[in-house]
Amino acid sequence: MATNPESPLDLLWKEYSLVFREFDDLTLARWLAQTLGQLEGKAWRLSHPLLGAYRLAAQMGHERQIWFKRLATPPAAYAESPCCRAPLLPLLTRDVKDAGLICQHCSDTLVPFDEFPDGIKAGLETWAGQYAPVHAVAHWDDRQRKSAGDYDRAYENAAREAEGLLARAGSELAPKLLEFYPAIVWEDQDECLEVRPEDVLL
Ligand SMILES: [Zn+2]
Predict the structure, then answer these.
(1) In the chain, fewer beta carbons within 10 Å around the N or the C end?
(2) Cα of 87 to ligand 1 centre, how many Å?
(3) 158 alpha carbon to ligand 1 midpoint, in Å?
(4) Is 46 in contact with 188 (CB distance < 8 Å)?
(5) Ligand 1 center–CA 35 separation, angstroms
(6) How far is the CA of 79 from the centre of ligand 1 (A)?
(7) Interior/surface letters 13-39, b for 16+ CB within 10 angstroms, e for the rest
(8) Ligand 1 mean position, distance from CA 84 (Å)
(9) What is the pLDDT along the chain (202 residues), one digit of tens a residue?
(10) Separation of 171 CA from ligand 1 center, angstroms?
(11) If you measure from the C-alpha of residue 111 to the centroid of ligand 1, how many angstroms do you get, rounded to a whole number?
């Protein structure tokens, strides 16, 4: 999802979210708890429609402090998040080294990088280290673009590399994280390099 609140995409998601505004607190809490049951045990693309719906409902639930009200019990596998006390549902992004894993309910850092289990820390660090210079191609300044000669080609190459790296996040890193978390979401796009979810093949 885009981060600019005025972007057409954000306005569209806002429109989508209206359906959950009509839910009363109890209905929303039950819907969230039941859907968590369906998300459990799997690694999910951020672009998956079920996940998209869950995120909208989760944001609404966060606004209404639904998890503080204890109206429905989430599946036992989900521990309470330290950030907002919602059930633990982390998102893996390319910014994992700086931002850690992101909470799908309050969008804060859920697990800082320093607190990652040893079994996955090195693998994530390597991956993020490979991704950073690839992503940076999208943000090169004029001088860097000129020195590359054919910038369009450099950009295209970076996009192809990002596709491969994102596929690795989905096929290797996210399943590994499932050993530690009840469910995991991974970002399957790179908007700056124009890599779309359908470009990332598992
Ligand atoms: Zn949170």
Answers:
(1) C
(2) 8
(3) 32
(4) yes
(5) 17
(6) 12
(7) beeeeeebeebeeeebbebbbebbeeb
(8) 4
(9) 445 667 998 999 999 999 999 999 999 999 999 999 999 999 999 999 999 999 999 999 999 999 999 999 999 999 999 999 999 999 999 999 999 999 999 999 999 999 998 889 999 999 999 999 999 999 999 999 999 999 999 999 999 999 999 999 999 999 999 999 999 999 999 999 999 999 999 9
(10) 25
(11) 10
What is the 62 CA–ligand 1 centroid distance (Å)? 8
Closest CA to 92 of 184, 172, 6, 160: 184
Cα 151 to ligand 1 centre (Å): 40
Distance 101 CA to ligand 1 centre (A): 10
CA distances from 11 to 96, 110, 113, 124 (A): 27, 26, 32, 33
Selection from 48, 56, 51 nearest residue 36 by Cα: 51
What spacing in Å lies between the alpha carbon of 45 and ligand 1's midpoint?
Answer: 19
* Backbone φ and ψ of 195, nearest 5°: -95, 120
How many Å apart are CA 199 and CA 202, to the nearest integer?
10
Which residues, listed in sequence order, are joined to residue 44 by a DSSP beta bridge?
185
CA–CA separation, 181 and 171 (whole Å)? 16
